[in-house]
Amino acid sequence: MMSEKQYATPFPILQAASLLSHRTRIQKFRQAITKIVKSDHHVIDLGTGSGILAILAARQGARVTAIDANAESLKYAKAAAERNGVAGNIEFVHSHFYDFEPKEKADVVLCEMLSSVMLIEQQIPASRYAVKHLLKPNGKIIPQQVTLFAIPVQNETLWNRFHIEDLKFPRIPQTVDMKQSIDLADLQELEKFDLTKDSDQPLGIDKHLNFEIVQSGTVHGIIGMFESKLYDDITLTMKDGWRELFMPLPESVDVKIGTRLDVRVSFNPGEYDSLIIEIE
Ligand SMILES: C[S@@+](CC[C@H](N)C(=O)[O-])C[C@H]1O[C@@H](n2cnc3c(N)ncnc32)[C@H](O)[C@@H]1O
């Protein structure tokens, strides 16, 4: 009989496998890995999932250490490495990145824990940890930069998800397909993170954005999205497979064209319950 734990975590492996269908995302990583990874390199893949990035690096002849917090994903990644004839080049380690202490530092760290505004996944803290503890002094990390954007939107369907007749649930962030919400203002930059530096930039975001409303409607929340520079001119965008993140306001607000909307957006990347969204 399977243990409770084995039953409790089927989703991450299904999600890791579903990422294999994001072909332009993989193409761009492949381009960056081909450009950077050499056969005498030691590469660390943080959050290996299906093993795709570790396998691409091993194909370059590099020795790879592939880490994931999810044991089921690691089992799948190992089987994938065997199928591709590179299992001998990859050591798989079951660990949270904070607990991982490498026997040898890396020439290249690959870390793909991107999500719409880096609120839920661990991209920012994992990259910081990698630069500080896992990379050789002249080593390279991919991706190198992430820029976050925000926009006020109308999305009544998502707003109503949390109220079912006489039942009420707390509203929390939800992923949503692009173009499923109505944009009520132009996109604004929320934050930019340089992932190559052991930076002093505080991890937390606390921004006051001022939007000019370009379409009358009801603001139900803020949509978050991102763009990420992998290396040189290789850039990932939302079109490479990501869903947007809808962050609900505590109360919806009716707005008219030409009015200004002051919004405070505050959170610690990777800590989804730290989010505060307020109309000021
Ligand atoms: C977005 S997936 C990327 C998978 C794969 N690298 C790819 O590009 O398709 C992120 C992976 O990071 C792993 N992960 C998330 N948080 C982690 C943590 N704190 N420590 C180690 N792995 C983590 C997840 O289990 C998941 O497999």
Backbone CA Rg: 20 Å
Unreliable residue stretches:
1-9
The termini sit apart by 54 Å
What oligomeric state best describes the polypeptide chains here? single chain
Polypeptide structure, described:
- The protein has helices spanning 4-8, 10-18, 23-36, 52-59, 71-83, 123-134, 156-160, and strands spanning 42-46, 63-68, 90-94, 106-111, 135-142, 145-154, 163-164, 167-168, 174-176, 182-183, 188-194, 205-212, 217-231, 234-236, 244-255, 260-267, 276-279.
- With 280 residues, it is of the alpha+beta class.
- It folds into 2 domains: 4-112, Vaccinia Virus protein VP39 (Rossmann fold, 3-Layer(aba) Sandwich), CATH 3.40.50; 146-279, Distorted Sandwich (Hnrnp arginine n-methyltransferase1), CATH 2.70.160.11.
- The strands form 4 sheets. Strands 6, 9, 10, 11, 13, 14 and 15 form a 7-stranded antiparallel sheet that branches. Strands 3-2-1-4-5 form a 5-stranded parallel sheet, with helices on both faces. A 3-stranded antiparallel sheet has the order 12-16-17, with no helix packed on it.
- α3 runs parallel beside α4 (52-59).
- It starts with a helix and ends with a strand.
- The model is unreliable at 1-9 (pLDDT under 50).
- The structure holds S-adenosylmethionine.
- S-adenosylmethionine binds at residues 12, 16, 19, 47-50, 52-53, 67-70, 73, 96-97, 112-113, 122.
